[in-house]
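User: Sequence in, structure out. Go.
Assistant: Echoing your sequence, followed by the structure tokens.
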Amino acid sequence: MRTPEPRLLIFDPYFQTLCQAFDLPWEGYCSVRSDLERVAVAGPDQIAVVARDGRTVWRVPHHRWGPRLGAVDSAGSCAFSPDGSQVWALVPRPVDDTGGDHCWVLDAATGRLLDRVPLHCSIVDSSISPHPDGRHLVMSLDAPYEVGWIGWGRWDNGRAMVSLRQADYEVLADVHPNGGRYLTTPIEDDKLTVRRFPDRAVQAVRRSAEVFDGVAGFDVSGGFLDTGRVIAKEFDGPTALFTAETLEMVDLVDYPPDTVTDLPLPNGRGIWSTFDFFTGRLQIWKDPSAPLHNS
């Protein structure tokens, strides 16, 4: 989790032990290497890798993110490759480039640019993270007016390969722990969707009106609670559990009074967090098949 300093705190999967802390050069999208020795941080005009002792290992500049496409601001993202040898970054296009924004692949040890791929789209926000298969990275790219793209990249025979498909009104919420499917949540729409990886075929759809009494629709937060269940909530409403394959509702989550219920973020192991942006209060919850608790 990030703090206001900016500082990144890394906990064990059950949020019982603080494993590592990084002082970051700026606030931005970040990715931790699997050995917890390095963190990559995407900034307004550069990508950096920081060591656990606070030392900046390298910085690579790029064209600056800023107001674009009618949005008051924009930002990129970055992630270590599954084996930790590369940093993949989504960066803005040069002013005279007609190929859209770029995906860069950098050597994780030195910052040397290994490859760049034009994305043929212009974005204001994005996320990128390693896929559980140990080979791919998954990407979600967003533009104004509910326009977006979901896809993935991989390193193949010395080159970066990127596959994107337009996915308007959908946001990549989570990838199943075994990597075989992924969950999307809606923007200005009213459905959860489970799609198969990598061919994107729809496996299940659930509209909030089928399970909730309200009309607000699903929130964008949610994901795979474990291999068999999805957790998702209505915007400003209740949280529910669904089967991972068919999105049949299993149960409503019965939170105790006066607890944080916004932004459910599961870890795929039966644990999830909730967070209140206004108070900074983070709460941790365990599998609701056992008595609920928070820390």
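User: And one key feature?
Assistant: Residues 290-295 have pLDDT under 50 and may be disordered.
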